[in-house]
């Protein structure tokens, strides 16, 4: 066994703790093993790896794409981040709710976020490196950004002077997302 499931939230998000083997040289752990994830119902094929580096106080998010939505397998390889995931599936029992989880190079947690969630995080360390696998290729034409501070969700960021891109600041509200979803789905659920 390579992972231990330690948390499940919002009908799909799973947080894993890998088995870490360490000695005076350092440590080793398996950060991805397809067969192991399948034991927990994650059968997705991953097609793209992404990496970001952020400075302390950066907020990235809340990102999603509606055409070929991405599932993401996330981990932090340097520093610490607090991830927030908003359920944006209008037909979900947990629609509009968010979940938060700290991932760091200390806890080595790995988080699975299925399609249908808007993803974001705040960098809590001086430098924060995030690596994640995606189940679909990035599609700029279907990218949607939910404003990180939309009052409909009420995310508590706990970042005194956030560093946020202009693109993320211009994100839409959750109710604007619902209107867009209705136009796009034409009665067929996207997620």
The run of helices and strands is EEEEHEEEEEEEEEHH
Total strands: the figure is 13
Q: Round the mean pLDDT to the nearest integer and report it.
A: 94
| Structural domain count | 1
Counted by DSSP, the helix tally is 3
β-strand amount? 35-45%
Distance between the termini: 31 Å
Tell me the major beta sheet: 6 strands, antiparallel
Q: CATH topology, anyone?
A: Jelly Rolls
Overall helicity: 10-25%
Shape: globular
Radius of gyration: 17 Å
Which class do the helix and strand fractions yield? mainly beta
| CATH architectural name | Sandwich
CATH superfamily: Jelly Rolls
Poorly predicted tracts of residues? none
Widest beta sheet: strand line-up: 1-2-10-7-12-5
Look at the structure and give the CATH class. Answer: Mainly Beta
Characterization of the model:
This protein has 191 residues and is mainly β. The protein has one domain (41-185): Jelly Rolls. The chain has 3 helices and 13 strands. The protein has helices at 34-38, 166-169, 174-185; strands spanning 3-9, 13-18, 21-23, 26-28, 48-55, 59-65, 72-78, 80-87, 98-104, 110-113, 117-123, 127-134, 143-145. The strands form 3 sheets. A 6-stranded antiparallel β-sheet has the order 1-2-10-7-12-5, with no helix packed on it. Strands 9-8-11-6-13 form a 5-stranded antiparallel β-sheet, with no helix packed on it. Strand 1 (3-9) and strand 2 form a beta hairpin. The model has no long low-confidence stretch (mean pLDDT 94).
């Amino acid at each position: 066994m390579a992972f231990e499931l330690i948390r499940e939230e919002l009908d799909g998000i799973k947080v894993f703790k890998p088995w870490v083997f360490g000695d005076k040289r350092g440590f080793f752990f398996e950060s991805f093993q397809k067969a192991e994830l399948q034991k927990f119902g994650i059968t997705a094929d991953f097609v793209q790896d992404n990496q970001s580096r952020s400075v302390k106080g950066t907020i990235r998010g809340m990102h999603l794409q509606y055409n070929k939505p991405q599932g993401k397998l996330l981990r932090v390889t340097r520093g610490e981040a607090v991830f927030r995931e908003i359920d944006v599936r209008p037909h979900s029992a947990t629609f509009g709710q968010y979940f938060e989880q700290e991932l760091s190079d200390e806890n080595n947690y790995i988080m699975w976020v299925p399609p249908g969630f808007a993803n974001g995080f705040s960098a809590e360390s001086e430098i924060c490196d995030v690596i994640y696998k995606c189940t679909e290729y990035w599609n700029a034409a279907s990218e949607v950004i939910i404003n990180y501070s939309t009052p409909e969700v009420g995310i508590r960021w706990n970042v005194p002077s956030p560093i946020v891109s202009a693109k993320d600041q211009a994100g839409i509200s959750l109710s604007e997302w619902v209107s867009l979803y209705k136009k796009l789905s034409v009665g067929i659920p996207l997620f």
